[in-house]
Amino acid sequence: xxxxxxxxxxxxxxxxxxxxxIDQLGLGRFQWRLLLICGLTWAADAMEVLLMGFALPGISxxxxxxxxxxxATVLLTATFAGMLVGALFWGWLADRxxxxxxxxxxxxxxxxxxxxxxxxxxxxxxxxxxxLTGFAIGGTLPVDYSMMAEFVPTAWRGRFxxxxxxxxxxxxxxxxxxxxxxxxxxxxxxxxxxxxxAAALPGLIGLVARFxxxxxxxxxxxRGQPAEARAALLRVAQVNRTTLPDxxxxxxxxxxxxxxxxxxxxxxxxxxxxxxxxxxxxxxxxYGIFSWLPSVLRAQGLDLGAVYRTSLLLALAQIPGYxxxxxxxxxxxxxxxxxxxxxxxAVGAYLFLLAGTPGAVLATSAALSFSLLGAWGALYAYTPxxxxxxxxxxxxxxxxxxxxxxxxxxxxxxxxxxxxHLSVALTLFAVCFALAAACAxxxxxxxxxxxxxxxxx
Length: 457
What we know:
Layout: H1 18-25, H2 29-63, H3 70-97, H4 99-118, H5 123-137, H6 140-151, H7 157-185, H8 188-210, H9 217-222, H10 226-240, H11 267-290, H12 293-299, H13 304-331, H14 334-354, H15 358-386, H16 392-414, H17 422-442
Helix pairs in contact: 2-3, 2-5, 2-6, 2-7, 2-8, 3-4, 3-5, 3-6, 3-16, 4-5, 4-6, 4-8, 6-15, 6-16, 7-8, 7-13, 7-15, 11-15, 11-16, 11-17, 12-13, 13-14, 13-15, 14-15, 14-17, 15-16
Membrane topology: Multi-pass membrane protein
GO molecular function, one term: transmembrane transporter activity
Organism: Deinococcus puniceus
């Protein structure tokens, strides 16, 4: 009698890596909606960061602050000091508890503290409010860019990260236009309060919009939540009107908890240190010049309306810088684009120094605005791709924290622009840009077309 043959075992369906899932779901409405939501908040952050340069003449008029005084410098520094603490804290927390929670909390706090600054009755309370506003918005940077990098398909990631950074130009244009308009409606002693209040409102709109965004599937997987990660991907599929393959997600092997110290071990040490130096150098020069530029123009005899109109033109000059950066990061790569823009910024700082007429000052500062914001766009595309998922917001928080440290120092260094040491200040800034370019090249890694790293090495 013939024995029945044993059945062949049914092969388990292959697991799907999260990178492959994101690529298969493609680029669609979800990513464009995420870009708009994160971009709106990023524009609001730009307004909060830059508005003190526009508000300072009115604040000085109300509280009797002398030009270049310690109180004026502290006011410009307070937001950056808060961002330094916030970037380090919120970046670490987002890797522990998830991107979405921090995504919501930081925007809510930014709105509350921003409005508090608008009604501050004394300089001391205004400094506290600006520090707390900086603490809140310091967390949006590492979280927003990590979220965007982790939801966008590989082929489009660099472009979208530059697109997100380009909303900074929108915020700059809005705050300059708003300051200009308010200066025609209210006296300076009142206009600055309306400016601070208005700058907080875009964040409120962004907060409401963010409730519909799920947590990052990469972050969920790294924290041992595969069911939630699949639900997040299904949400992307639904919005994009595509289909998620009916196979389990590839879950990374269990790993010991990662601490910020991992940024300085093994292969991570070199890239963390070099990236921190790039962020520090670019930030010191950028904020050193542009935080004080409205006051510099005012000191040259321009009325407030002319200062705000000039600032608006400089903000518009940022847009082609971003457009070119978005093209170049996918054409020639992140690293080469970043180095090229930083080198152009170093040259631009000296051209600004040599400008001897109002037209030349406007032209050279517009060129600087173009090159510096192109450099920021390339840097924001490059940085999150260099950190693995378990450390991405921690790493982004650390390097952006180094930028905030530079931002704390930059108002004091930039004050030399008002006190007759123009050549010293601009030479220092040019050296910062050149050293940042050298550090960016020394990283030695190109991430264009590469999938995001998942494991800490």
